[in-house]
Amino acid sequence: MDYPGNLFVVAAPSGAGKSSLVKALMELDSAIQPAVSHTTRPPRGQEKHGREYFFLSPEEFDSMVRRDSFLEWAHVHGHRYGTSRHTIEERVAHGADVILEIDFQGAINIKRIFANAVLIFILPPSWEELRSRLQRRGEDSAEVIELRLQNAAIEMAQAQKFDFVIINELFERAVFDLKTIVHAQRLKYSAQRRARADTFKALHIP
Ligand SMILES: Nc1nc2c(ncn2[C@@H]2O[C@H](COP(=O)(O)OP(=O)(O)O)[C@@H](O)[C@H]2O)c(=O)[nH]1
Ligand SMILES: Nc1ncnc2c1ncn2[C@@H]1O[C@H](COP(=O)(O)OP(=O)(O)O)[C@@H](O)[C@H]1O
Questions:
Q1: Gene3D superfamilies from the entry (predicted)?
Q2: 45 annotated to a ligand binding site
Q3: What is the mean pLDDT of the chain?
Q4: For the complex shown, is ipTM > 0.95?
């Protein structure tokens, strides 16, 4: 599907720092809009319905699946998460740059629909650091942390399918890398659009 805006998809194992990085990017770049996903996971301490996620009951999620309201959805860490069609299609059609924080399965599905989407994978500097970030975040039980670490091995094996990989060791450095990818993509697409417009003009195609 072709569209006027840019679509960025960020995936990472739990605790690698993707939410912190995306938040920092949005503070620096007001032109980029987040896509808020739907989930059956219960909210964490400070999370608000409609801000981090739309928190749904399993029945509400089922109903959205039946109505074909999701562009993609997946089972992740024992819960369901999905990107609504409405959120993405409307924004990209209006030329907005949208950033999605979703798991690797969702990222690969989005790339099938939007071939120009830029897939970015965030890696932690080490296993020890990943574990200690999950522990320091203090939002998940020891059991949930173990499950997320087990899944991290499967998730990290997918990094090679992504367009870019950022190692989030020094936070400021990783934000800079993310910002650079976003800017480079914008330049590339505006140059391509200009070249296409010039070609059409030269060929007298309206
Ligand atoms: N496929 C898919 N994955 C999602 C979506 N929203 C969130 N996720 C992923 O679900 C996983 C768990 O998210 P969350 O429970 O917020 O934990 P966190 O990764 O530790 O912040 C992460 O890999 C998210 O990127 C979505 O709409 N679709
Ligand atoms: N580069 C970094 N160095 C140290 N701590 C970090 C770094 N990036 C993120 N963190 C911390 O690690 C924890 C997990 O980050 P978070 O953004 O919630 O990860 P994710 O969204 O990938 O699950 C948070 O407490 C966050 O403040």
A1: Guanylate Kinase phosphate binding domain (3.30.63.10), P-loop containing nucleotide triphosphate hydrolases (3.40.50.300)
A2: no
A3: 93
A4: yes
User: Is 70 in contact with 113 (CB distance < 8 Å)?
Assistant: no
How do residues 69-89 score in pLDDT, each as one tens digit?
Answer: 999 999 999 999 999 999 888
Q: What is the pTM of this model?
A: 0.93
Helix (H) or strand (E) run with residue 153 in it: helix 142-156
Supply φ then ψ for residue 24, to 5 degrees: -65, -40
Q: Which residues of 50-78 are buried (b: 16+ CB within 10 A; e: fewer)?
A: eebbbbbeeeebeebeeeebbbbbbebee
Tokens of 127: 């296993």
**Domain 7-35+97-202 = CATH 3.40.50.300:** yes
DSSP state for residue 101 in the 8-state scheme = E
- Give residue 82 CA to ligand 1 midpoint distance, Å: 9
138 class by beta-carbon count within 10 Å (0-12 exposed, 13-18 middle, 19+ buried): exposed
pLDDT band at 5 (very low <50, low <70, confident <90, very high): confident
**148 CA: nearest ligand 1 atom:** 20
Find out whether the beta carbon of 133 lies less than 6 Å from any atom of ligand 2: yes
Domain positions in the chain: 7-35+97-202
